[in-house]
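Let's sit down with a protein and look at its sequence and fold side by side. We need material for that, and I hope you will provide a protein of your own picking. Once you have written the record down, we can walk along the chain together.

***
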Amino acid sequence: MSQMTLLSYLDVSCNNLSGRIPSSTQLQSFDHSRYEGNLGLCGLPLTKKCPGDEESGIQHIIGESEGEGIDEPDVWFYIGGAIGFTVGFWIACGALLLNRRGRYAFFMFLDSFEDWVYVKVVVFIANLQKDEHR
């Protein structure tokens, strides 16, 4: 079972199983509640340590990988997203700050769009009120 890679759900609670939960990322990634009712089971994700865990260092190695939090590719994804957002934001704002005609056209568009939305909302509300009075 420890060689399975596409296992998305496993619940072996209340089966009187015993021994160490195999040290594979698949079986140790499940919630500890999926193993409840098996008093003989030990190892991660359960809090019960297996005999010999402290001498062999298995618990220590597994704890280090879980304590890191975010993987390196994820860190680069977040860094790239933050840099991309910042650069894009300042390109848009810089274009508005430096180009007078562009700034004027942009704010005229926003003003006319605001008027268009206002008219659509008022007409919609008027139609709703007219339908209520019928």
About this structure: Strands lie at 18-20, 40-42. The mean pLDDT is 77. The helical segments are 25-28, 53-56, 58-67, 72-98, 100-133. DSSP finds five helices and two strands in the chain.
